[in-house]
Amino acid sequence: MILADGLSYLAKNYKTDFLIDLATLTGSAVRMFGDTCGAMFSNNDELKNLLIKTGDLTNQRLWNLPLWEVWKDDIQSDVADLKNISMKPIGDCIIAAKFLEQFIENHPKWAHLDIAGVAFGNTGYSKEKAATGFGVQLLADLIENYH
Q1: Where are the domains of the chain?
Q2: 15-21 long-range CB contacts below 8 Å, 24 or more apart?
Q3: Which of 44, 81, 85, 111 is the most exposed place for a label (fewest CB within 10 A)?
Q4: If one looks up domain 2-120+128-145 in CATH, what number appears?
């Protein structure tokens, strides 16, 4: 809910070229990709392609997943505006992204990166499982090279 609030606040109060959030959001992203790549959801092909290209260049790869409207049915509620969980045992990361999409205030270039599987792992600077910093280099490169 805090991430949803943050997205709504940013979209309402700042004029940005892109709106990108990263979160260790769901176990289904881990089950799907392990520590190979982050799950990406975007409402904009330009941003989607830019993130994939930048991810390949920085070795912080992303795989695009759909935000089809059919997934919105899973967050409908009889007693609230929306619910933030589906009762189905499938598609958790997609449903979570669809939930977040409801709070971007129709921002035309948004991406959600579910980095649950790539956020922790064995790294060159730590002998034990540690935070990888996944997404830092990705976003730094994207910002530096965006025209």
Answers
A1: 2-120+128-145
A2: 16/107, 17/109, 17/146, 18/47, 18/109, 18/110, 18/111, 19/104, 19/107, 19/109, 19/110, 19/111, 20/47, 20/51, 20/110, 20/111, 20/112, 20/113, 20/139, 21/100, 21/111, 21/112, 21/113
A3: 81
A4: 3.40.630.10
